[in-house]
């Protein structure tokens, strides 16, 4: 009778049948009459009603009947409670789920899975403190966490950056005789790499294989990414052969290795790899093309980049703003303003607005082409478009004025950064120091060097060397010696020519 009632409820609540007389209340009244002989009557009936509402994602109603059930002194099974709790969490009602979990402690039958569901909810909401609070409650009841609970907590710790706690949990698992699964190994390996603990990550990778746990595609991609970041492209190629044998390659794998090859300037090898992937049934995506385009532009192969760009469009992939920025920078770098301008027009025709990066690339290009009129035209266009110049844009403009020897304009821009709440970085300071040294202004160069130190930045070797040269030209060899000592204290090594210049200045002074 209960299964029939639940079926009837489901159809009624989902709108498959309708009745102006039949309601849940009338069903409850009818089925709880004493003449009906099924045991235990109320618990199973209420569970059917709650479960039906859960299936239909009717949270408020399911909470109402669940609470009514408890208030009548009925104890729902752990399965019913778990389904209800999981439904609350799936519906992004974490706080409500937490209150229900707390309120129902000791009033419903909870099992390990109940605690596991709540721990997962806490971790997914970034609340590790509550997750470990639930773990402690679980252990207080004499229950033992299972592999899934440990894996969930390890994942939560890795995502929050607490890799030491994640490692401790992993070791605890082993001490309890629990065997880590594919997911546990993968999240911890990835966690180690994200924190820069490469040694631990690779050691765990070896342990995973020794323990007979097969890596999945996410494990392989994590290892592949780390090999490529370290420049170990040959190791990455060995790994991809293994992955292809197991049928575990995807476009992410391909993109990772293509990126690694392009960073090593092995762009033609990257192109061959894409061909190999296509033969294996993998279609390049926008990231694949963008990475290859960037690679070809970096090595000056703009003809190849242009052909690839056309191939990408003919394959039905729409270029992104990143695609255009890469190509605009590539053509700007080789002194082809016509092609760069053509790309901007195409970009706008496709409804893609130039970004801050696009403007910065073009500003840098026109500075190098000595077209300052166009530079400021672009700068004003950028402002009209509602794009505020960032540190990078200021850096490009300041560098342009310094290269042209116009330190008045460079200084004006440098000081105006504070008005828009931007702090010059070490690159901008070094460019300004270079500009002042070039015009022989040792006083201003020294003042900026001091300012850099006060702001926690260390000048580069070129800034120290150029300032020392200017001091020597002014006959200030004593200041130059002090300056060289400061340079050594900063961990930088002065060149032999600097020492020779100071000695020569001393000799002339005598």
TrEMBL record:
PPR repeats: 111-145, 146-180, 181-215, 216-250, 251-284, 285-319, 320-354, 355-389, 390-424, 425-459, 460-494
One Gene Ontology cellular component: chloroplast
UniProt xrefs under InterPro entries: PPR_rpt, TPR-like_helical_dom_sf
Record's keyword terms, sorted: Repeat
Cross-referenced Gene3D superfamilies: Tetratricopeptide repeat domain (1.25.40.10)
GO BP term, example: mitochondria-nucleus signaling pathway
Keyword Repeat: yes
Family: Belongs to the PPR family. P subfamily.
Designated name of the protein: Pentacotripeptide-repeat region of PRORP domain-containing protein
């Amino acid at each position: 009778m209960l299964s029939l009632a639940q079926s009837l409820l489901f159809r009624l609540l989902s709108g498959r049948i309708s009745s102006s007389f039949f309601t849940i209340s009338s069903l409850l009244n009818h089925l709880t009459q004493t003449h009906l002989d099924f045991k235990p009557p109320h618990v199973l009936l209420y569970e059917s009603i709650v479960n039906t509402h859960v299936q239909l994602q009717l949270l408020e109603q399911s909470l109402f009947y669940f609470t009514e059930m408890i208030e009548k002194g009925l104890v729902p099974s752990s399965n019913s409670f778990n389904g209800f709790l999981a439904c609350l969490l799936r519906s992004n009602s974490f706080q409500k789920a937490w209150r229900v979990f707390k309120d129902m402690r000791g009033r419903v039958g909870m099992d390990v899975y109940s605690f596991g569901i709540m721990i997962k909810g806490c971790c997914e909401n970034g609340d590790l403190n509550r997750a470990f609070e639930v773990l402690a409650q679980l252990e207080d009841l004499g229950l033992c966490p299972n592999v899934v609970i440990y894996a969930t907590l390890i994942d939560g710790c890795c995502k929050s950056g607490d890799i030491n706690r994640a490692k401790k949990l992993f070791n605890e698992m082993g001490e309890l005789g629990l065997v880590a699964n594919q997911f546990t190994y993968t999240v911890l390996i990835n966690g180690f790499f994200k924190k820069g603990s490469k040694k631990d990550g690779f050691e765990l990778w070896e342990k995973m294989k020794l323990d007979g746990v097969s890596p999945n595609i996410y494990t392989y991609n994590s290892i592949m990414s780390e090999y490529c970041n370290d420049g170990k492209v040959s190791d990455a190629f060995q790994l991809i052969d293994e992955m292809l044998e197991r049928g575990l390659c995807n476009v992410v794998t391909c993109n990772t290795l293509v990126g690694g090859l392009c960073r090593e300037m092995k762009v033609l090898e990257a192109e061959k790899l894409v061909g190999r992937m296509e033969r294996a049934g993998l279609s390049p995506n926008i990231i694949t093309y963008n990475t290859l385009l960037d690679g070809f532009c970096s090595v000056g192969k703009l003809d190849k980049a242009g052909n690839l760009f056309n191939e990408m469009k003919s394959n039905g992939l729409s270029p992104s703003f990143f695609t255009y920025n890469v190509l605009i920078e590539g053509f700007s770098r080789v002194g082809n303003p016509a092609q760069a301008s053509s790309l901007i027009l195409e970009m706008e025709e496709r409804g893609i607005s130039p970004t801050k990066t696009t403007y910065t690339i073009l500003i840098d290009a026109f500075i190098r082409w000595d077209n300052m009129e166009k530079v400021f035209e672009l700068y004003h266009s950028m402002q009209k478009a509602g794009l505020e110049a960032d540190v990078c844009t200021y850096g490009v403009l300041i560098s342009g004025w310094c290269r042209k020897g116009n330190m008045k304009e460079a200084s004006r821009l440098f000081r105006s950064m504070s008005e828009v709440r931007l702090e010059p970085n070490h690159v901008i300071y070094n460019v300004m120091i270079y500009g002042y040294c070039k015009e022989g202004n040792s006083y201003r160069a020294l003042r900026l060097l001091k300012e850099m130190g006060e702001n926690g930045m260390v000048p580069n070797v070129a800034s120290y060397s150029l300032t020392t040269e200017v001091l020597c030209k002014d006959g200030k060899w004593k200041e130059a010696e002090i300056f060289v000592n400061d340079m050594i204290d900063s961990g930088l090594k002065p060149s032999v020519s600097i020492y020779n210049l100071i000695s020569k200045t001393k000799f002339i002074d005598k």
